[in-house]
Design a protein that fits this description.
With 408 residues, the chain is of the alpha+beta class. The protein has 13 helices and 13 strands. The protein folds into 2 domains: 239 residues, no CATH class; 84 residues, Pdz3 Domain (Roll), CATH 2.30.42. Strand 1 and strand 2 form a beta hairpin. Helix 2 packs across helix 7 and helix 7 packs antiparallel against helix 10. The protein is globular.
Length: 408
C-alpha cells in the first residue's frame, strides 16, 4: 500500500510499519563529512565494551534478586511494567518528558545506523516508524541484508555499533547538561535542624495509610512512642507491631503535630508495604545537592535511579524542587533537568539493551555473523552456537524480570 509513491505501510497486526524516504538525503550529506568518517572508524570495536556493561548490569541485577528478599519485594511492588521504556505503562516514566526522550532516543539511534551505512556506501532503502495499535514504539532504517553481507566485518561492526554508541554519546551529553543545571542551584529552603523522621512521598490508593488519612508530605516521627529517623527504623517498628494497635506520630504537610491510631495487619502482604506508602528520609538540601553533583563524576550509573523513585535524593524531584532555585531558569529549572534526566536514562538503557547478544538486536546481529562465519562448516551444537547464545541471553533477561515472582 503506497501513499504518493513515497510512503509505504506494512501491516503486521498489531504492528504497523511505515516506510518513508525522510532523512535519506540528510544521511547522505552528513556521511560525507570528516566527522562522520572519523566516527565510523572510532566505534568499530566498541560494541563489546557496551555489551560488557550491559551484561554487568543485568547479571548484577539477577544476583541481587537472588540474594535479597527486600529487593524482590520492591520489584513486585512496582510490577513487571517497570521494565518497559513506555511512558504510561512504566509507573516511573512521566508522560511528556518520557515520550519526548523516547522519540529522540529512537531517532538518534537509527540515524547513527543510517549515517555510518552511507559512509561505507551501503544503500539505505528507507526510514520508518513502528506503531503498536497506533502508538509509536520504535523507528528503523531499512538496510537490505544483502547490502550488509557484501561489506567487511569491520564495516558491518561500525554500522551496527553506531546506533548504541550514538545513544551513549547523547546520554553523556544529557548527564553533563544535568550537572550544568544542578551545579548552579541556590538553596531557598535550608533544613530545619529540629526536624527528623521519614517523609511520605506517595500514598497508594486503598492502603492502610490512605484509610487513616496519611497524606503526601506528612513526616512520620514515631511508632508507639519509638522515634523514627530513617526507613529502616520505620520498617523494623512496623514489623514488631504486626497485628497490634499502634499510634503513629506525624508532622502533617501543613506543619501540625498529629497522632493517628490504627491496627496493623497480622502479616505483610507479599509485594506490598504495611502502610502502603513511598517514603524518603528527612534530608538536608545542601547534602542532597552536594552528593548528587559529586556522584555525576564518581558513580554516574547510580544516577540511573529515577527522580520519581528516589525523590529525596534528587534535587529536581517533585519532593525536593521547592528547596532550590536556578539563576537561569528560576523555579522552572526542574523542566530542563527532568527532560535531560530522561534523555540520559532512556538513551543509556536503549544503548546497552541493543548491545546484548540477542538475535535481532544490534549486538546479536554482529556476534551472530561473527559466530556463523567461524562455525559454518562445523557439526553438532557448535553449528548452532549463535542460536544457543541468543537463547541463553534471553533466559537471563527473562530471569531479571521474573525472579521476584518465582522466589517469594
Amino acid at each position: 500500500m503506497e501513499q504518493q509513491s513515497k510512503i509505504k505501510f506494512d501491516l503486521h497486526l498489531p504492528l504497523i510499519l511505515i516506510h518513508t524516504p525522510y532523512g535519506l538525503k540528510f544521511f547522505d550529506r552528513v556521511s560525507k563529512t570528516r566527522a562522520a568518517r572519523f566516527y565510523a572508524k572510532f566505534n568499530t570495536y566498541l560494541m563489546p565494551l557496551i555489551t560488557l556493561m550491559a551484561l554487568f548490569l543485568i547479571i548484577g541485577s539477577v544476583a541481587a534478586l537472588f540474594s535479597s528478599e527486600s529487593i524482590r519485594e520492591g520489584a513486585r511492588g512496582v510490577g513487571p511494567q517497570a521494565n518497559l521504556l513506555i511512558p504510561g505503562l512504566n509507573p516511573y516514566l512521566p508522560i511528556w518528558e518520557g515520550w519526548i526522550a523516547l522519540v529522540v532516543t529512537i531517532i538518534v539511534h537509527e540515524a547513527g545506523h543510517g549515517i555510518i551505512a552511507r559512509v561505507y556506501g551501503v544503500k539505505v532503502e528507507s526510514t520508518g516508524l513502528v506503531l503498536f495499535l497506533g502508538i509509536p514504539i520504535g523507528a528503523f532504517v531499512n538496510i537490505e541484508r544483502d547490502e550488509l553481507n557484501r561489506i567487511s566485518t569491520k564495516q558491518k561492526s561500525s554500522i551496527l555499533t553506531a546506533g548504541p554508541m550514538t545513544n551513549i554519546v547523547l546520554a553523556a551529553i544529557s548527564l553533563l547538561a544535568i550537572l550544568l543545571i544542578t551545579s548552579t542551584l541556590i538553596i531557598t529552603k535550608p533544613m530545619d535542624q529540629n526536624l527528623y523522621g521519614v517523609v511520605i512521598t506517595n500514598v497508594n490508593p486503598d492502603s492502610l495509610a490512605a484509610s487513616i488519612g496519611l497524606s503526601k508530605g506528612d513526616t512520620i516521627q514515631g511508632i508507639q512512642g519509638a522515634e523514627i529517623r530513617d526507613p529502616v527504623q520505620l520498617n523494623e517498628n512496623l514489623n514488631i507491631n504486626l497485628g497490634k494497635p499502634v499510634t503513629i506520630e506525624i508532622i502533617s504537610n501543613k506543619g501540625d503535630t498529629i497522632v493517628k491510631e490504627t491496627t496493623l495487619p497480622e502479616q505483610r502482604e507479599p509485594g506490598k508495604g504495611i502502610l502502603g506508602v513511598s517514603i524518603t528520609p528527612v534530608t538536608d538540601p545542601k547534602e542532597v545537592l552536594d552528593r548528587y553533583n559529586t556522584m555525576i563524576f564518581s558513580s554516574p550509573l547510580a544516577l540511573l535511579a529515577p527522580p520519581t523513585f528516589v525523590q529525596g535524593m534528587v534535587p529536581y524531584s517533585d519532593f525536593m524542587a521547592d528547596k532550590y532555585s536556578s539563576p537561569i531558569f528560576g523555579s522552572y529549572y526542574t523542566i530542563p533537568a527532568n527532560l535531560f534526566f530522561w534523555l540520559w536514562f532512556i538513551n543509556f538503557n536503549v544503548a546497552i539493551f541493543n548491545a546484548l547478544p540477542i538475535g535481532p538486536l544490534d549486538g546479536g546481529q554482529l556476534y551472530n555473523s561473527l559466530i556463523d562465519k567461524k562455525t559454518q562448516n562445523k557439526k553438532g551444537l557448535i553449528r548452532h552456537s549463535s542460536k544457543i547464545l541468543t537463547y541463553a541471553m534471553v533466559i537471563v533477561v527473562v530471569l531479571s524480570i521474573a525472579l521476584p515472582y518465582l522466589l517469594k
